[in-house]
Fold this sequence. Notes:
The chain is of the alpha/beta class. 39% of the residues lie in helices and 16% in strands. The strands form three sheets. A seven-stranded mixed β-sheet has the order 4-10-9-8-7-5-6, sandwiched between helices. Strands 1-2-3-13 form a four-stranded mixed β-sheet. The protein is globular. The protein starts with a helix and ends with a helix.
Amino acid sequence: MTESLLSRRFATMGRHEPLFYNEPLHLVSAHGVWLTDISGRRYLDAYNNVPHVGHCHPRIVEALRSQASTLNIHTRYLNEHVVDYSEELLSRFEPSLNRVLLTNSGSEANDLAFRMAAQHTGARGILVTDHSYHGNTTLLAGITTGLRTHEPLAAHVRAFPVPDLDAAENRDRDEQEILQEALEQVQRAAEELVAAGHGVSAVIMETLFSTEGLPRVPEGFVTGVAETVRSAGGLVIADEVQSGLGRLGSHFWGYQKHGLIPDLVTLGKPLGNGHPVAGVVTTGDLLEEFGSRNEYFNTFGGNPVSAAVAHEVLRVIDEEQLTQRCAQLGDLVAQRMQQLVQAHPRLGAAKGSGLFFGLSVFADEDHRQPDGASAKALVESVKEAGVLLSRIGPSGSVLKIRPPLALSQQELPVLLEAVEQAVGNVLQAP
Ligand code: PMP
């Protein structure tokens, strides 16, 4: 069954979209943090941030069923669901971020944010971090540095590195010096854009730098980048598609962890718990200006079903106190990961925040050579133990652990023990 499904998939959809695992997982159902495959085997999902409040959460399913059986229509009619949801969503932002445009995917949201920034600044130049991903439109393929794409970096784009205090070359250096050097590179990239006649329209940063491998950035880096870009006339876009909506425990949005207030915030994946909901949050002035020049219309973005589902996601986060639980579990995880790092010389610092964390894997005990092959073996071995996770970073050497927030304290040991066991198997001393 799985074999023939795989060949039918390749025959119809091609091979462009790689499947996870040496032997792809054929899933049939899910509940909470548990996924069930075709053979009836259950896996704890420690990878997916889309089913934010848990797979097939009964309240989300009911919100979808109830609204889908009442009214679903495009967005050019008056309907309270989209307005109710927009008010509720915006109440979770700083007062200046008080307008939202809803879309269907993170890519659409980022594309729109760049369009707004270009119109506001009159410039086209874009600054982006090394080894990042922000979506799949033609514009975004031209700024992609962290995923294989045919498109070269577009002429109006410059990438700058994100410093990692844990990297071998930074270990014995002063944090201020690392920060200064990193900000000088941003300044140079901005100057290049101006010199080439593109000007600076915006910088985009994913505020936990997930695709980059969850580097531990110097204090003041994110705000420093923002200041540099604003002095060059550009706007600041925070991409919260992965880190937003309470996942970090300590803060509802990743940019808040850095003390930054962006000009545009882009949202996606977890907003609809699996139903496609995304959007751009911005200031009244920016949206007014954009609206005065464009008739922006999005057929599905903010339709009554999407809005009802996304609204229910916010209610569940509040009522089940998921952000608070995320902070508590995140502390437990951080302690256990620290113990694991101490016990295994080839593991580097535990990274991340709340229920978004990573473990660096190295080929050597001095942590100079990132080891993507061992990280891959660990992901496979953890899967054999019944837990799903993935890996990130320029060498694919950082384990990416990002379970739905529905993970309970009772389920946490299943995840931790699978990781510990796999580390024991894969990283034994030679
Ligand atoms: N930004 C980030 C940080 C992402 O991780 C992704 C998706 N992986 C996107 C944007 C694009 O979102 P979508 O796939 O919904 O278009």
